[in-house]
């Protein structure tokens, strides 16, 4: 196992919704332009292609494995302790890796087990062939799942473990029983959802934060989960900062994310955007600009199981108040 003290790069390439047919090339190109942090998950359905891109980059000596920070995530159907290790081994097989740098619980939601041979990734619906297909819940406490996650570190399958989509109450509870503390909390955060209290709590616990969907609505337009008018890139304060700095509005918003102290994992399918999203370390926003962007917060959550599970999977299951 490589250096346990390796630091997670502040900008990663988010692999959610990257199409299978372009994924291997996208990963290769991301590594080629300088990305060393890849944010994957079994549920994204493209880990085989992510692995192909990684292996091509390694074969071409664009970097070494130990230079990369690779994250994957435990899906909801594998929350029982005995299913956690097979789940990470499946991801490792698909990614063609011996270990992960970080493995996260994807959602604090336990669903009934689905065998790999029946359907992979299993997604949200328990039985797609049922007369009325819907999401179902399994009675698995998060404490049991975390014990399974801790065993992965002890087995050398991942360096670090952490959680996604936890709220403050779940984080406090986790810290009370975790023998191996979570290294990272990954949550949705952008100028419309700053999550200041959650961020402060994580830092009080010495937990690093990764913000997904750091550009807000842009990740959700194609899913009809956001409207074009909700783009933070059109906000006057963002445009003004971009003009002052001779940067794009997207670079300003991404810089705001890392200047808060977070890592960010923007996704793009456009090669030119890969380099743009990474080029945010040669400038800084002023205190006034940071405060003005902070003030855009309106607690607008785009990725909310309390909404999309009921709408798409016929199950009301909120995890945020």
How is the topology of this model organized?
Layout: E1 13-14, H1 20-33, E2 37-39, H2 47-59, E3 69-74, H3 81-95, E4 100-105, H4 142-154, E5 158-164, H5 168-177, E6 184-188, H6 196-204, E7 208-212, H7 236-245, H8 249-259, E8 263-264, H9 271-278, H10 287-294, H11 305-313
Parallel strand pairs: 1-2, 2-3, 3-4, 4-5, 5-6, 6-7, 7-8
Helix pairs in contact: 1-2, 2-3, 3-4, 7-8
Descriptive overview:
By secondary structure, the protein is of the alpha/beta class. The chain has one domain: Alpha-Beta Barrel (TIM Barrel), CATH 3.20.20. The chain is built from 11 helices and 8 strands. The protein has an 8-stranded parallel β-sheet with strand order 1-2-3-4-5-6-7-8. β6, α6 and β7 form a beta-alpha-beta unit. α1 runs parallel beside α2 and α7 crosses α8. The longest helix is centred in the N-terminal third of the chain and has 15 residues. The chain is globular and about 55 Å long. The mean pLDDT is 94.
Q: Key terms for this structure?
A:
eight-stranded parallel sheet, TIM Barrel, 8 strands, alpha/beta, 11 helices, globular, 321 residues
CATH architecture: Alpha-Beta Barrel
Number of domains: 1
| DSSP helical segment count | 11
Rg value: 19 Å
Task: Estimate the mean pLDDT confidence.
Answer: 94
Mind telling me the CATH superfamily name?
A: NADP-dependent oxidoreductase domain
> Which range best describes the helical content: under 10%, 10-25%, 25-40%, 40-55%, 55-70% or over 70%?
25-40%
**Strand runs, count:** 8
Biggest pleated-sheet summary? 8 strands, parallel
Helix-strand string: EHEHEHEHEHEHEHHEHHH
Structural classification: alpha/beta
CATH class: Alpha Beta
CATH topology: TIM Barrel
Question: How big a fraction of the residues is strand?
Answer: 5-15%
Anisotropy-based shape: globular
Low-pLDDT stretches are none
């Amino acid at each position: 196992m490589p250096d346990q003290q390796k630091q997670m790069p502040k900008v990663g390439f988010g692999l959610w919704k990257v199409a299978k047919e372009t994924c291997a090339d996208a990963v290769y190109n991301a590594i080629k332009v300088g990305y060393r942090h890849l944010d994957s998950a079994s549920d994204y359905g493209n880990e085989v292609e992510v692995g192909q891109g990684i292996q091509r980059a390694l074969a071409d000596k664009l970097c070494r494995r130990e230079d990369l920070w690779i994250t994957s995530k435990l899906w909801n159907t594998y929350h029982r302790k005995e299913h956690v290790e097979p789940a990470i081994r499946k991801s490792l097989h698909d990614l063609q890796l011996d270990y992960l740098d970080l493995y996260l619980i994807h959602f604090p939601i336990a669903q009934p087990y689905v065998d790999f041979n029946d359907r992979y990734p299993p997604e949200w619906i328990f039985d797609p062939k049922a007369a009325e297909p819907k999401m179902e819940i399994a009675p698995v406490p998060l404490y049991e799942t975390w014990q399974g996650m801790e065993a992965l570190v002890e087995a050398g399958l991942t360096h670090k473990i952490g959680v996604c989509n936890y709220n403050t109450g779940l984080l406090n509870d986790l810290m009370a029983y975790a023998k191996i503390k979570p290294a990272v909390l990954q949550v949705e955060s952008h100028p419309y959802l700053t999550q200041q209290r959650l961020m402060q709590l994580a830092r009080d616990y010495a937990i690093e934060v990764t913000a997904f969907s750091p550009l807000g609505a842009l990740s959700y337009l194609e899913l009809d989960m956001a409207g074009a008018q909700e783009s933070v890139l059109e906000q006057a304060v963002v445009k003004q900062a971009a003009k002052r700095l001779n940067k794009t509005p997207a670079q300003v918003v991404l810089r705001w994310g890392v200047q808060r102290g977070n890592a960010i994992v923007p996704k793009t399918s456009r090669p030119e955007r890969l380099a743009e999203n990474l080029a945010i370390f040669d400038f800084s926003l002023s205190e006034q600009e940071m405060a003005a962007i902070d003030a855009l917060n309106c607690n607008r959550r785009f990725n909310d199981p309390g909404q999309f599970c009921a709408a798409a999977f016929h199950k009301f299951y909120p995890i945020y108040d």
